[in-house]
Amino acid sequence: MRDNVSVHLALYGVLSAAVVIATIVFRFPVPHSSLYGVNLGEAVIYITALLFGGLPAAIIGGVGSALADIVGGFPAWAPITFFVKGLEGLIVGYVYNKSGSTKDIFAVFCGAAVMVIGYTIFAGLIYGLGAVPVEFIGDIIQTAFSGIIAIPIARGLKKRM
Prior knowledge:
By secondary structure, the protein is mostly helical. It has six helices and two strands, in the order αββααααα.
């Protein structure tokens, strides 16, 4: 399976679709805000990074999350999302592979930091400084919940792979 391009493409497509679904279906809007809200697409990115590495997670996270922005009504965010979520997946996978399998929490923390900082900066640039605290808090909640969900799932799947 490792060298089968067709299997890799199919897996990337399925996992990208899982990111879209987890982002749109499991989305909890931020009250009194035009921001996207908290979602669970992050969990799929983390699981992908922990199981398959940084490059697949970068592709799946970037493509899946950008598609979710387009389908979910936030197309202006798609290029930003592609970059930030792709970088997040890349970092989680890279840190996890370099630090060893017992460092999954640290790897997710590193990726979450990139996501929180990236989105907070862009929210401030797009919506103004008033959006910064709302975005920051929402992203902290989103990455924390996603990490809590993703790490045990990835650990369980890793044992069976």
